[in-house]
Amino acid sequence: MQHFSIWSLLRNSMSYHEGWQKQWRSPEPKREYDVVVVGGGGHGLATAYYLAKEHGLRNIAVIEKGYLGGGNTARNTTIVRSNYLWDESTALYEKSMQLWEGLSQDLNYNVMFSQRGVLNLGHTLQEMRDIERRVNANRLNGVDGEVVTPAQIKEMIPYINLNTRYPVLGASLQRRGGVARHDAVAWGFARAADARGVDLIQNCEVTGIRREGGAVVGVDTVKGFIKAKKVAIVAAGHSSVMASMADIRLPIESKPLQALVSEPLKPIFPCVLMSNAIHAYISQSDKGDLVIGAGVDQYNGYGQRGSYHTIEHTLQAIVEMFPMFSRVRMNRQWGGIVDVSPDACPIIGLTPVKGLYINCGWGTGGFKATPGSGWAMAHTVAQDRPHALNEALSLNRFYNGHLIDEHGAAGVAH
Length: 414
Ligand SMILES: Cc1cc2nc3c(=O)[nH]c(=O)nc-3n(C[C@H](O)[C@H](O)[C@H](O)COP(=O)(O)OP(=O)(O)OC[C@H]3O[C@@H](n4cnc5c(N)ncnc54)[C@H](O)[C@@H]3O)c2cc1C
Known about the structure:
Layout: H1 6-13, E1 32-38, H2 42-55, E2 60-63, E3 79-80, H3 87-101, H4 103-107, E4 118-122, H5 125-140, E5 146-148, H6 150-156, E6 170-174, E7 178-179, H7 182-195, E8 199-201, E9 206-212, E10 215-221, E11 224-233, H8 239-244, E12 253-262, E13 272-275, E14 280-284, E15 290-296, H9 308-321, E16 330-340, E17 347-350, E18 356-360, H10 370-383, H11 397-400
Parallel strand pairs: 1-2, 1-11, 2-8, 4-13, 11-18
Antiparallel strand pairs: 3-7, 4-6, 5-6, 9-10, 10-11, 12-15, 12-16, 13-14, 14-15, 17-18
The site of flavin-adenine dinucleotide has 40 residues, from helix 2, strand 12 and strand 16.
């Protein structure tokens, strides 16, 4: 694999940067694979990478209907944190956080992970009690967290208006939280997976899942049938569509979620700030854009756009907290399709079909889990059983009632 270093940069600058090799190959699909991963987003690519790296599998393909990282991976607002409420989810998000902390080195690809801190504001006494409870739970789980006062928030962001219609009473702060560059995450995993022999097949929609005697035997695609011993569905907003190809009904609703960015500004916003009560969040990208988002649109659908009133409401909330941003021009707005589960927790595990595995339900908050999700999914697929980290996150919880309700951790669950 081509190694990125200051020396390779210098060497290539001598030849006008024309000598860089392609980041990954574009092979034609083979007739048969040990594992086919459906979905070339961050989670699918990370699954393939860890299958090769941690479990020594080589005959793997990632099948993507569009281009790598063109789904939610490229559409999210890149907030990374691990301060969830319940032990089961915290454990997985914290595993992910630990992988983030060494990811650029592991992939030899700069994913621009920036631990600039995430604030979750509290605007009511009840919200502050919930924040205190969550921070205590986090600390008991070894996850960093602190409760900060309005004065401390003002110190971090001097121009914030704390006396909004719902005054800011405090916040939780996870200093290890932050942001990363989303497409670099997809490209980094893709490049590293390719280097370990994974075939990355783009523009190849999966149209069917073939089974024989209750076990999966392969997938039908627009490029023909591909035989596979195991198939992993990692298709985010299209998970229900994929699962229905194997006659499985998932407890998932697919909804549009929007975001928008402003024109680039000089560095002005030092951290990530989220508010559940007024339903908006904001950070600044390394390019300088203010990155703004909110909650899901209220209707189900597969259109990758959202409704105007959601965006309007979000901007009202942002401008109320940061009046000086009222004169900033917005550059782009877009939507993605998020896969929302009833308890706001992901589903990673086996399905009733032998050899078929599912990873979905990340809803509005799966980007932060990309490395951890891929790591746990790879273990599940390779060993044909969940890892302790995702045992509680199986489909079974919707039958036995052991739900893990993370709605309380953040109304805006990013
Ligand atoms: C606007 C927005 C803001 C968000 N903000 C945050 C945030 O700040 N922090 C956070 O942690 N999370 C956030 N999320 C959620 C996060 O983006 C997702 O949970 C995460 O990216 C899911 O990754 P993935 O790899 O599973 O999905 P995707 O990147 O969507 O990958 C799934 C892939 O499957 C492919 N696919 C689907 N059907 C087929 C088929 N039939 N055949 C082949 N391929 C198929 C798709 O084309 C797609 O590329 C946000 C999401 C959105 C939309």
